[in-house]
Structure formats: C-alpha cells, structure tokens
Design brief:
Blueprint: E1 3-4, H1 9-16, H2 24-29, E2 32-33, H3 44-48, H4 63-68
Antiparallel strand pairs: 1-2
C-alpha cells in the first residue's frame, strides 16, 4: 500500500534521526491511500512552467510525448487487484 501523508518538517527530521514520536501513528492514520493501479504522479508545475525549445508553449498534440518525459514524484503502481 502506498499512502500520502502531510507531516510537519520538525517531525520529519526527528523521524529521519531515528526518533519516532508517538504522534506519527496519528499522521499515518490520517494519510490518503493511493488507489491500486494509479498512474504516475507528477508535479503540475513541472508541466505548466516548461516551454518548448522555441520559448513557446507545446501544442496539445505534443503534450502526451512531453508529459511522458516529465519526472514522476511517485511512479505508477502496476499492481492489479
């Protein structure tokens, strides 16, 4: 299972240093599970802020090829139920 959680920076640093505050269980329980078989998760900023080599925007026809090259934050889950 993959889950997205939002934690304070300070708590993240404590966890990285090997100190696991009890509250971490609460954070996990309030996380958002990603559905099985989800596609790649991208940062929309990486798509919207990028222009083509001519300094213009990509045509919609070119977008699938461009998006395929954008680095994923989380890779696709190929697991099937």
């Amino acid at each position: 299972m993959q889950i997205v959680i939002d934690i304070p920076e300070k708590m993240y640093e404590l966890i990285k240093d090997g100190h696991v505050p009890f509250r971490v269980l609460d954070v996990i329980m309030n996380g958002t599970p990603l559905p099985k078989g989800h596609g790649r998760i991208l940062d929309e900023k990486d798509i919207l802020d990028t222009k083509n080599n001519d300094g213009g925007w990509y045509d919609l026809v070119d977008m699938p090829e461009y998006i395929a090259g954008v680095k994923a934050i989380i890779e696709a889950d190929s697991e099937k139920e």
